[in-house]
Fold this sequence. Notes:
- The chain has 322 residues and is α+β, with helices and mostly antiparallel strands.
- The protein has two domains: 2-173, 2-Layer Sandwich (Ribosomal Protein S5, domain 2), CATH 3.30.230.10; 180-313, 2-Layer Sandwich (Alpha-Beta Plaits), CATH 3.30.70.
- The protein is built from nine helices and eleven strands.
- It has helices at residues 68-79, 104-119, 128-143, 149-156, 193-206, 208-231, 234-250, 256-267, 293-302, and strands at 2-13, 24-40, 47-51, 56-59, 88-94, 160-163, 170-173, 180-186, 272-276, 283-287, 307-313.
- Strands 1, 2, 3, 4, 5, 6 and 7 form a seven-stranded mixed beta sheet that branches. Strands 9-10-8-11 form a four-stranded antiparallel beta sheet.
- Helix 1 (68-79) crosses helix 3.
- The chain is globular.
- The site of (3R)-3-hydroxy-3-methyl-5-(phosphonooxy)pentanoic acid has 16 residues, from helix 4 and helix 5.
Amino acid sequence: MTIATAPGKIILFGEHAVVYGRPAIAAPLSQVRARAVVSDGSRDGSVRLIVPDLGQAFALHEAEEENALAAAVRQLQRAADIDQLPALTITVSSQIPIASGLGSGAAITAAIIRALAQHLGLVDFVGNTAVSDLTYEVEKIYHGTPSGIDNTVVAYEQPVYFQRGQPRNRIEPFAVARPLRLIVADTGVSSSTRQVVGDVRHQWQANRQVFEDLFDQCGSITERARQALQAGDMVRLGQLMTKNHALLRTMTVSSTELERLVETAVAAGAWGAKLSGAGRGGNMIAIAPEWHEETVRQALLAAGARHVFTTTVSGEPVIGIR
Ligand code: PMV
């Protein structure tokens, strides 16, 4: 039996602009994870995928092309050039909320690919780069034009500075000077990344100059944020978050709920706050002095946040196979 897990993720700076080649920073959310367990044999001799939490169980050969779990298995099978997989049971579970920008899809895919590659002894496919690349291929099915940041951060499980590029993306895992405590609040509104990304694209097509300029400003904030993270300058980081949020608002990806939560966090003493991920719903993040954290948390709940949790981003590299 082989088990692999992958963390959730949160985008700290640069969402949307990252799709257009500007740098972004994302960090793993190690306390919420997706998990895949692969064992030999199955009830009917096929490759069977089981998702106990959803009451789902099906054979790989019966799954539709768009099925995300099947796509993860097929992607690895294709890459490793395996004609026929042996009978296997793959059991998948996840603690990561779906459709809220926490990278649940990418984490599930990465966990399946890593567990399966490890189980089958496919040494070329167990490393972070291979897991990230294969996860990216699966992400394309759902996101249309994903930047590649989600698959990177869930596979590397480290804060990463990421810039999309040719022939290869620039991926720089980096250490933070001091552990970063992030307050994450869920609006409770689910939103489709694909749709929001598509909508930004339409606006960019209609107003190229305006949007290129907004993306440039986001890119410059990301650069400054990386320096602040590496210097442990939380006050500066908070200011940069709020600035990045204002740019995202101009791109029309904020929402009434996100605005309310961002304003509430800052009014309750946070150094800064912003939406995180595609926007129009999903999560916002805030950083606050430790003595204000509880006040900010309570204020966010009172302002209608569905869930609020605090997570610590540290720079420690984590080995992805467990
Ligand atoms: O909603 P999420 O967390 O999956 O993030 C999407 C991030 C975007 O920059 C909007 C899109 C992308 O592919 O990077």
